Amino acid sequence: MKLFYSPGACxxxxxxxxxxxxxxxxxxxxxxxxxxxxxxxxxxxINSKGAVPVLxxxxxxxxxxxxxxxxxxxxxxxxTLAPKAGTMARxxxxxxxxxxxxxxxxxxxxxxxxxxxEAGRATTTANIGRKFDWLEARLADGRDYLTGxxxxxxDAYAFTVTNWAGFKGITLSKWPHLQAFVAxxxxxxxxxxxxxxxxxxx
Length: 202
What we know:
The protein is an alpha+beta fold. The protein folds into two domains: about 90 residues, Glutaredoxin; about 100 residues, Up-down Bundle (Glutathione S-transferase Yfyf (Class Pi), Chain A, domain 2), CATH 1.20.1050. It has nine helices and five strands, in the order βαββαββααααααα. A five-stranded mixed beta sheet has the order 3-2-1-4-5. Helix 1 packs parallel to helix 3. It is globular and about 45 Å long. The model has no long low-confidence stretch (mean pLDDT about 100).
């Protein structure tokens, strides 16, 4: 398996899960602006969408983070990271993946536009705050992870996206349960390994 990634981007969730399952894999960094891989390949020839992540496996190319996350766990037979299909536990993980992808991830998108003005930033920050409010309420019952006591692929995705707050000047102190969640995931050996490999921590 080979993962194409950009440091700290949503692809980091897949990187974390690859470390969680412990199977051999390769990574290659992508310049998502220039659309060139670290080895000099035309990234658009690999993924015409031009986005990360991409998983190459057995001659196939799989795109879209939530699909990759579930595929990695399913292929490894890891029903902790992704519970068995057809169960309510799996539906809950999918539910959270959809929330992170269609609500939180999208809410952050304007923050990466260099033309965003102060008014736009204020509106975007408020919108992100509303998504954080929902996650805070979800975690307020004392659960360690989004669907309960067990770390799943949805937590890897939620951690990755929520972690962008620090890079965009948003403090998590208003959301203590979410802040604790981020710290909890960051301390996992898989997250540490991924962040080190991507050059985000020493």
